[in-house]
UniProtKB/TrEMBL annotation:
Divalent metal cations. Prefers magnesium or manganese. This is Malate dehydrogenase. It comes from Candidatus Sungbacteria bacterium RIFCSPLOWO2_01_FULL_59_16. A divalent metal cation binds at E139, D140, D165. It holds the Pfam family malic. The lineage of its organism: Bacteria, Candidatus Sungiibacteriota.
Amino acid sequence: MARNNFDAIKKKALRLHKKAGGKFAIMSKVPLRGPEDLKLVYTPGVGAVSSFVASHKGSEWEYTMKGNSVLVVSDGSAVLGLGNIGPYGALPVMEGKCLLFKKFANIDAVPLVLATQDTEAIIATVKAVSPAFGGINLEDISAPRCFEIEARLKRELDIPVMHDDQHGTAIIVLAGLLNALKVVKKKLKNSKIIISGAGAAGTAIAKILCLAGAKNIVVLDSKGVIWRGRPNLNPAKRELARITNPKNMKGGLADAMRGADVFIGVSGPNIVTEGMVRSMERNAIVFALANPIPEIMPDAAKRGGAKIIATGRSDFPNQLNNSQVFPGVFRGALDHRVRAITDTMKLKAARAIAALVPRPTATNIVPDMFDKRLVRTVAAVIR
């Protein structure tokens, strides 16, 4: 039934996008009714605005689009769970992200997909176009390049830069986990947490969970558990080995999940079996967040004995998706003119989201996208 439903969604989505010609359009903020308006919005009146902005540093935030605009950038190298499908494959996702920015946070976002996957070229391009924008949202850029690109741009620009696949995902996962643990009456510091996926999202999730107090995290990539001393780890994975896996265990996913309290999947489809879930501790928490097909479907996870199940999709209960986070983060960043989105802000955002559901249940651990409190609650702590 789930498969048939997903097939129907795909067909409807294709029809919608073809009919509309995409999801993104540009609209004017001011009227252009005739010559009187024209001489104000363009020549000769615009010359006065240009001269003023050029000679008054900081005025661009009030007199141009900069104060309410975000650039959404992707090279198409890690799109959803679809992999490296290039800039054209990335464009529908970036358009959708811009739609969500506008709908939920009233931010004017512009999609930019790049025909290069060269780190230096991406950094140079974003820096070159950045003056028009109040923030940079990096999206669907593969690890480990995404770490260097974000770090460099954060150092070299004076506006907030956030790789949303990392930090938006990490924030909503922590929010969901805080409430899920409340439901099953377990503590974060005492829970064994398995993270499948050591890319952008998995790395950021591990780091924010450590900051929040988790003590027993094991991260896996496609080759198995990441452990100290494992050959051929890149620098990002060596850092993961340093801060996780306190017992330095080895093995595969089935080994890691045995006796675990929490599974967090940000990897690929259908890699978890009912038997793996059954091997977890009682009242197991399963966050199968791969999109569009999760690591295990919710009905299978339930048959395996999971108490709380979340996915990244909106057609199942307990959606955990970065789309619940990034509108509020950038709304706050623009409103409060922050230059960087810090770890402290991320932790506060996660806890603020969790607090919006004071009495969580197995099927309600975080607010959904259409909860009107969500954006303003997150925005309030980004300062």
